[in-house]
Amino acid sequence: MALISLQNVTKIFDGDVVAVTDFNLDIADGEFMVIVGPSGCGKTTTLRMIAGLEQATAGNIYIGGRLVNDTPAKDRDVAMVFQNYALYPHMTVYQNLAFALKMRKIPVDQTRKRIAEAAGLLGIEKLLKRRPAALSGGQRQRAALGRAIVRRPKAFLFDEPLSNLDAGLRRAMRAELKDLHSRLQTTTAYVTHDQAEAMSLGDRLAVMLDGTIRQTAKPAEVYDRPANRFVAGFIGTPPMNFFKGRLDYGKGALNFVIDGEAIVMPLNLRALLQEYRGRDMVLGVRPENISPGGFPGKADNVISSTVETVEPLGARTDVYMKNRGGQKFITAVDPHARLSVGDAVKMHINVEKAHIFEPEGAGRNVTLDY
Q1: Which 3-state string (H, E, C) describes the chain?
Q2: How confident is the model at residue 249 (pLDDT cuts 50, 70, 90)?
Q3: Which of 197, 214, 234 is the last residue of a domain?
Q4: Average pLDDT in the chain
Q5: Of 234, 265, 293, which marks where a domain is finished?
Q6: How many folded domains does the chain comprise?
Q7: What pLDDT shows up at residue 300?
Q8: What is the CATH number of the domain that holds 348?
Q9: In this predicted structure, what is the pLDDT of residue 100?
């Protein structure tokens, strides 16, 4: 196992295409770090630089305290699992697992032992004589994992390894990966665009956009205390709602006014938000923190809304709505809530769970300062 450190790493491809800019990240020994972001944000390029498959244009990369900028991929002692599995089609599973050990001149008896241990760990003992074409998607993924495990590397690097699997198998494999990491405790860098995958697997998340990290934190902190509007909107299903409005005083309280309707800010935020009084800002509220109002405890802080679409999902119902100013939002309600298309509803906003963002630039979350 080893600490992985990227210091001021930049990658510029031919044609002045900037993929990664001034990237700084430390992955602790034994940590499961998930690098998450939309397609094209630079996350796979970052992983490939760690692996040695891409050369950094600037900055330094350390693995286990050793500078590896000029170290060939084969000598970095990391194992990478690719999106397409990259198994040799003419070899059996056993031969695929043994190949890297053969290249390193590992004795045959040790090779057999390592493969037996990995196969037992992954439950693929009965698949060792098959070729990849005879395996299901999940079985191929386990074989690719086995090939990485037998090498006993300092670190695992995963490049969207579950994206080719169906939804049910992805969930099952997520659980298996988490269990596997808890047993092996190998330093892991895992790249994905799937925020549900990121939230369920990572000890910490590094959320990327346009080649830079926008926030690094534990999953719960990224969800509950997003650093900016991008992170708030990217992490969470359904995504956070954003309401345009203005912060102003009225009736002795600091209000966020949305199309003429006042949402009273909690006392603990009033001093903090004082400097933004009279400014156009953005109110962020997650769908689970907006609910039908008009009953005890929820008569205040409501916005007039109309139901546009109702989407039952079993454990919850997602309701797509718009307020009287035409701003659209989503609420996640109890599956037994009786809401129909066209209904006019007062929707209560839980201000204790709300965030205030700057409207310009990255949309900094100004409520994180308290």
Answers
A1: CCCEEEEEEEEEECCCEEEEEEEEEEECCCCEEEEECCCCCCHHHHHHHHHCCCCCCEEEEEECCEECCCCCHHHCCEEEECCCCCCCCCCCHHHHHHHHHHHCCCCHHHHHHHHHHHHHHHCCHHHCCCCHHHCCHHHHHHHHHHHHHHCCCCEEEEECCCCCCCHHHHHHHHHHHHHHHHHHCCEEEEEECCHHHHHHHCCEEEEEECCEEEEEECHHHHHHCCCEHHHHHHCCCCCCEEEEEEEEEECCEEEEEECCEEEECCHHHHHHHHHHCCCEEEEEECHHHEEECCCCCCCCCEEEEEEEEEEECCCCEEEEEEECCCCEEEEEECCCCCCCCCCEEEEEECHHHCEEECCCCCCEEHHHHC
A2: confident
A3: 234
A4: 92
A5: 234
A6: 2
A7: 81
A8: 2.40.50.140
A9: 84
